[in-house]
Amino acid sequence: MRRAGAIVAEVLARMREEWVVPGVTTADLNALADELIRKHNAIPSFKGYPPGAEYPFPASICASVNNELVHGIPGPRVLEEGDIVSIDVGAFLDGYHGDAAITLPVGKISPEAQRLLEATEGALYAGIAAARVGNRTGDISATIQEYAESRGYNVVREYTGHGIGRKMHEAPQVPNFGVHGKGVRLRRGMTVALEPMLLTGGKEVDVLDDHWTVVSRDGRLTAHFEHTIVITKNGAEILTRL
Ligand code: MG
Hints:
Blueprint: H1 2-19, H2 26-39, E1 43-44, E2 61-65, E3 68-70, E4 84-93, E5 96-105, H3 111-129, H4 137-149, E6 154-155, E7 161-163, E8 170-174, E9 191-194, E10 197-199, E11 205-207, E12 214-216, E13 222-224, E14 227-232, E15 235-238
Antiparallel strand pairs: 1-4, 2-4, 3-12, 4-5, 6-10, 7-8, 7-9, 9-14, 10-13, 11-12, 14-15
Helix pairs in contact: 1-2, 3-4
The protein binds magnesium ion (MG).
């Protein structure tokens, strides 16, 4: 899982450092990511997911712009100065998955957007800090919710973090809202993907006619950060660290 996580981290680092710029299309980003994942002899986890579905995800990354929260399908959309884009990447190598996401600024962005990115990344790291042996999933969930809501944001209800390993989505679910002391007890060696999704406006979301793209109902900005972690006796280790 470390090796799968490192590939995901490399893709996201390239996104941040060179690929996400004004004028690029989300389809361009998908092609670059797909090439890099396969160069490492890994398989993009998201392409064709879930197997056997009527509308499996058609691309190797999710690219979700502005009011798009998660699961955006890459395409001809050109990223413009001031946009924010969430890039979600999964890689499957030697029987294991890695899964992570970052929301990146496209050129110079508004102070409002910058604050949202900082709050969403901060919520992720607060959740990771709560991922300790003896805590429960509810401690992670409640920590993320408190971090976001105390800064004036909503957390999505319909989409959650998750166990990850031989399958991309395993038990337990780790929602971005919850109650301290509830849920599954965290044990050494558990691998989970934590993924706060924050909304500037209301918490209601819709899925577009493409069957995948999740947008805020009020059209306001959203952001998403994710890491795959393993719980150790000394706290959480991030397997998809950039
Ligand atoms: Mg995930």
